[in-house]
Each structure stands twice: as C-alpha cells, then as structure tokens.
Write a structure and sequence with these properties.
Blueprint lengths: L1 E5 L6 H12 L2 E4 H11 L2 H12 L5 H12 L8 E4 L5 H12 L7 E6 L2 H9 L1 E3 L6 E3 L26 H15 L1 H8 L3 E5 L4 H11 L5
Helix pairs in contact: 2-3, 4-5, 6-7
Bound molecules: adenosine monophosphate.
The site of adenosine monophosphate has 18 residues, from helix 2 and helix 3.
Length: 216
C-alpha cells in the first residue's frame, strides 16, 4: 500500500503517519525529517536545506525529488510506504506517480487532514520536539509527563526553528499557494479521503482507521 498524508503544516501529518506506518507495518517517508537529519550533518547540502527550511520556504523540487527517490529505493520501501510531507507541489506529485508507475505500483489513498487555519497557527506555536529521539509534543493536546522533558529519553525539549511565529505565517502561505492544489489533483483521481484533523490524537487516529476501512 502506498498512502500519502496531505495537509497544512501543523495538521498532524507526522504524528498520524508514524502511528499508521507502525500499525500497517509500512515504511514512513517524511521529507521534513530527512531534510532535518541532513541539515544537522552540516554538509553543503545540509546548509542549503537549512536555508530554505529556516525561511519557511519549500526546498526546490529537484533536490526534494532526488532525496525522496533515494528513500524509495531503500529495501523497506518495497512493501509499501506512508508519505508524510511529500509531495508538496504538483511537479513532485507527478514525479512520484511516474516513479511508482515505473515499478508497476501506484498511490492507493491520499488522506487529507483538514484543520482550520486558526487552529493550525495555534498548534504550530505550541509544538515542541525532542532533539534526541524526535518525539513530538504539544503543550495543550499531548504535553510531556514532566514539563519540558521527553517521555521516551528524558532529553530537554526544544521548539523547531521554523515554528517561530513569522516562519509559521510564511509556511502557511506557501502551503495554500503550492500544496493545497494537490487536493484537487488527487480528488480527480478518486484517491482523496478527507479526514477532520481537529480534536485529540486518538480521535483523529480512529477517523483515519475508519476512513481506510481498517476498523474491525
Ligand atoms: P515538515 O517537517 O514536513 O513540516 O517540513 C519542514 C520543512 O522541510 C518545510 O517547511 C520545507 O522547508 C521542507 N520540506 C519538507 N518536505 C518538503 C517537500 N516535499 N518539498 C519541499 N520542501 C519540503
């Protein structure tokens, strides 16, 4: 199965994609996570990625598609993938369709997590992450057990540089201009399922399971 999570930054794609990948035993391909990992390595490519991410801009399609295709070539991707944060432009969507078609595969479902713009902005500024194991937290909906500390590894939580209010504004603008048109692209292919992304993490998990007919 090849499933895409589509939605604005802050819609909960990362949390829900990780959960679903685990549940369905599929690979989880998150371009944002890939980019942050390379950016931490401090190579010239890492610096290029960081410069786009810090401004809230999209990494150019050429770099993004190349890195995603490298990820798709890893052995764990052969049995199916949950795409999280990719594609974000029509060019990327078409490149993914072409790459899968080349292997006789296709996207099965696109889950569009719908969240209102007001809620999105509030969520992103309340978002914290563990710099060691990357576990995500939210000060209101999923706070850590001990304030400021990771439940899994105890590290001190940080905010992503691109969750700063000005960058959040830019990322939302970029989403509506460049990524939102993908909703129509996948709707026209009959692959889109729209899921209400508001409420608790567990509520959204249940809605996704029922949208994918995974509920017994
Ligand atoms: P995310 O963690 O998915 O919110 O991604 C963080 C940042 O990485 C984005 O704001 C972009 O700068 C960059 N990024 C992630 N995925 C893509 C993509 N598919 N295309 C272009 N840029 C991306």
């Amino acid at each position: 199965m090849y499933i895409i999570f589509l939605g604005a930054p802050g819609a909960g794609k990362g949390t829900q994609a990780a959960y679903l990948a685990d549940k369905l035993r599929l690979a989880h391909a998150a371009t944002g996570d890939l980019f942050r990992k390379v950016a931490r390595e401090g190579t010239p490519l890492g610096e290029t990625l960081r410069s786009y991410m810090e401004k809230g801009l999209l990494v150019p399609d050429e770099i993004t598609i190349k890195m995603l295709l490298e990820r798709l070539a890893l052995p764990d991707a052969a049995g199916g993938v949950i795409f999280d944060g990719f594609p974000r432009t029509l060019v990327q969507a078409k490149a993914l369709d072409a790459a899968l078609a080349g292997e006789g595969k296709k996207i099965d479902r696109v889950i569009y997590l719908e969240v209102s713009p007001v809620e999105l902005a509030a969520r992103m500024t309340a978002r914290w992450v563990c710099p060691v194991c990357q576990a995500p937290y939210h000060t209101i909906t999923s706070p850590p057990k001990v304030a400021g500390r990771c439940d899994r590894c105890g590290a001190e939580l940080v905010q992503r540089a691109d969750d700063a209010p000005e960058t959040v504004k830019k990322r939302l603008q970029v989403y509506f201009a460049e990524t939102a048109p993908l909703i129509g692209y996948y709707k026209a292919q009959g692959k889109l399922v729209t899921v209400n992304g508001e409420g608790t993490v567990e509520e959204v998990e249940k809605r996704i399971a029922s949208a994918l007919n995974l509920v017994k």
